[in-house]
Design brief:
mainly alpha; 2 domains; 4 strands; 68% helix
């Protein structure tokens, strides 16, 4: 089975970028050298004291089911399964650090009690999907580097948040392959979302799918589906349905060599657009355009965009877009920087005249980012500030305040 072909391309791309940014290979080497005992022993000590290890003697039915999932997914790496006495509907995978260790998958008892055998295969397949894709390993490395995610760079925070959601969508594909029945996947989602038994409600998978489309439409219109750590269930459900009806999945079932499915990729790309947007409010769109265009214009006044200026623009853009570098590149490629600048300034002033203070402070901060202030940069700020309605004295006061707060002279110049 070509595991790589099953995965979502953007999930692979962002995962590789994050792994490289935290120097994952080097970090893995350091952690292996630094550890006192095997990683699996650490988790075993935690789980064995509070959990039940699934084996063929004590729980043959569960054990056979889990082994069947591993066989269906053609995953042969040593993996141990635990069940923890916890009513929360949750499961997780822990990736091994060394080849002679075992991966660990833990499933809470509340989840075991709630789902049937086929639904459980979807859950186990999902967790194994995190291991196959190496996303469980990347997540562990990210948790090590950024013990408090809120302290990570803003640009990485948004990228990690999107990658988390995409990795769930990829894992769901492996869950479907393990389960083999879309209706069971839908009923599993229903149970995890509602906590109810499908038998008591006479659950109808088709009606649930139709209702899901209406909910998904709402989240697409509001853009609020990106506020959660996991992609909202409507997105996950739709993504699984698209995968189940794809040529990629049909070929997989038929044993045909799996190749890239462009139709599926395009459908998924359209579906996950809401996950790419931090905010779809009009004012934030214009702020994004202003920050990118104004930053490029101001940084280019002295004919060269310095690394510190570029970094500052990217940092500011990170508050409004998941891919700030791409936003900047697209604006440069369109060769309409001046138009974006003028349009965004006009729009922001119409929406909120108070934005002019933010505009001035931002442009001044870009100027002082490279520890150098030129006459041409100073003249530009005075000219722009005057057009915004500021008096020259006000402009000078704003500039002076920014210098006092952020300016660092270049002592090596």
């Amino acid at each position: 089975m070509n595991h790589e072909a099953i995965r979502i391309p953007l999930e692979i791309q962002i995962g590789q970028e994050l792994y490289q940014q935290i120097q994952g290979r080097i970090l893995e080497t350091i952690l292996r050298e630094a550890k006192v005992e095997k990683t699996e022993n650490y988790f075993k000590n935690i789980l064995q004291g509070h959990s039940f290890k699934v084996n063929e003697k004590l729980a043959p039915r569960l054990y056979d089911s889990f082994m069947d999932v591993m066989k269906r997914l053609e995953f042969n790496e040593p993996t141990e399964f635990y069940i923890t006495n916890n009513p929360e509907l949750n499961a997780f995978a822990v990736s091994r650090l060394e080849p002679d260790e075992s991966h660990i998958i833990n499933i809470n008892s509340g989840l075991i009690d709630k789902v049937d055998d086929d639904e459980l295969k979807f859950i186990v397949g999902h967790e194994i999907g995190h291991l196959i894709s190496n996303n469980a390993n990347i997540a562990q490395l990210l948790d090590f580097v950024f013990e408090n995610q809120s302290e990570s760079p803003l640009m990485m925070q948004h990228k990690i948040a999107v990658w988390d959601k995409l990795s769930e969508l990829t894992a769901d594909r492996f869950g479907l392959i393990a389960c083999g029945m879309l209706d069971k996947v839908l009923s599993c989602f229903f149970k995890m979302a509602s906590g109810l038994s499908v038998e008591r409600l006479n659950f109808d998978p088709r009606a649930f799918s139709v209702e899901n489309e209406e909910i998904l439409k709402y989240f697409k219109e509001t853009g609020s589906g990106n506020l959660l750590s996991h992609p909202i269930n409507p997105i996950r459900i739709k993504a699984v349905e698209l995968f189940e009806s794809s040529e990629l999945y049909k070929n997989l079932l038929s044993g045909i060599a799996i190749v890239t499915d462009k139709v599926l990729d395009n459908h998924i790309s359209e579906l996950i657009q809401s996950l790419m947007v931090i905010s779809n409010s009009p004012v934030n769109y214009h702020r994004t355009c202003f920050i990118a265009s104004a930053g490029l214009i101001v940084a280019g006044i002295d004919k060269a965009i310095e690394p510190d200026e570029y970094k500052r623009i990217i940092e500011e853009l990170s508050a409004f877009t998941v891919f700030p570098k791409l936003t900047l590149s697209q604006m440069i490629d369109e060769n309409k920087i001046e138009i974006f600048f003028e349009d965004s300034v006009k729009a922001l002033l119409q929406i909120n005249p108070g934005e002019k203070n933010m505009m001035m402070e931002y442009m001044i901060n870009i100027i002082i980012a490279d520890s150098t202030i030129t006459d041409s940069e100073l003249n530009f700020i005075f000219d722009f500030g005057t057009k915004l309605g500021f008096e020259r004295k006000e402009i000078a006061q704003i500039f002076a305040s920014s210098i006092q707060e952020q300016f660092m002279p270049n002592i090596y110049s």
